[in-house]
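Review form for a predicted model. The reviewer records the input and the model, then writes brief findings.
Reviewer: anonymous (R2)
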Amino acid sequence: MAVKLAIVFGTRPEIIKLSEIMLLSKKTKGLESTIIHTGQHYDYNMSQQFMDELKLPEIDINLEVGSGTHAQTTGKAMIALEEWMLKENPGAVVAEGDTNTVLAAALAASKLRIPFAHVEAGIRSFWRGMPEEINRVLADQVADYCFAPTKTAVGNLRKEGIAAGRIHLTGNTIVEATQRGLGLAEGTAMAMQKLGLEKGGFIIATAHREENVDSRQRFSALISALAKLPLPVIYPIHPRSRRQLGEFGLMGEVERSGNITLTDPLGYFDFLQLSANSKFIITDSGGIQEECTVYKRPVLVTRDNTERPEILGSFGELVGCDEKRILSGARKILRNYDSLMRRLRRLPSPYGDGRASRRITNILVGGNG
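Model under review:
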């Protein structure tokens, strides 16, 4: 009898990291899947475009929970998911990461005694001021399957008292997603051409986390640093971050800088093309910290901590959202760029061999991974 999976996501990064599991769920003997989008990111450019570009299976259900406070989005998603689970009774619920959607899926499934599988379990920033940290810790506590991407994540789960039988070291699904995405992007991505960019002649920047874009001081420091960098900066900006630029009166500084180009959120292939061909990356994104280990680019992390410690001292450096530290980190990258790139190209990704999705799928159908 086939295992009935509910694969739940709500944001763009979750689509990417679950993409190979979605594809495998439709062609693996012993599996049936229902693909559920909570609608936490409801803008087409933030969700459906990625599904289309990656040639993923059709979304079966869109819960359309939309935006709101953390409690509102979590609560609406949990109520809607519970209603569906009571009707359909899936054999397992799968979610990835640390969003409000993940917490909603974890709580709804566990309270109904439906096995919950948490992809990317065990990663920790050890800072409870980060909403994502609360979500990932709680999801791991109720998960029946904790799919850990690294040995560090396995250690974190064990320290929190999670039974060894619930923990599975799989690698991170971002590796195979990025490898496949880079292949699909060849010949289709047009961002470099449209923006008139040359390989290695620009910097990619992203910022979307609350601690950065909701703080006038931190967001202002980031924009000031970007304006002083010696190369053009491409900043694909989240709609909410764009609103905050206006709220804090920073749009004028962006326009006066002469080297910061704001774009709307890009399709997955366009963003991969830009990132893989950039000089380096400045970001507060967790996923980009992982992706850079596949396409081998240095990254400055504009946070005070990271749940991806595996990149520090090799691919990445923590610089906070601090102008002086960002500029110092950029100078260090540029000063020894050729030797740095030779070293990074030789390093394997700390996130695995690109078979995490297959291991996870095998475990869910009762195999050994």
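Findings: Residues 137 and 240 are 26 Å apart (CA to CA).
Further findings: The mean pLDDT is 94.
Recommendation: see findings above.
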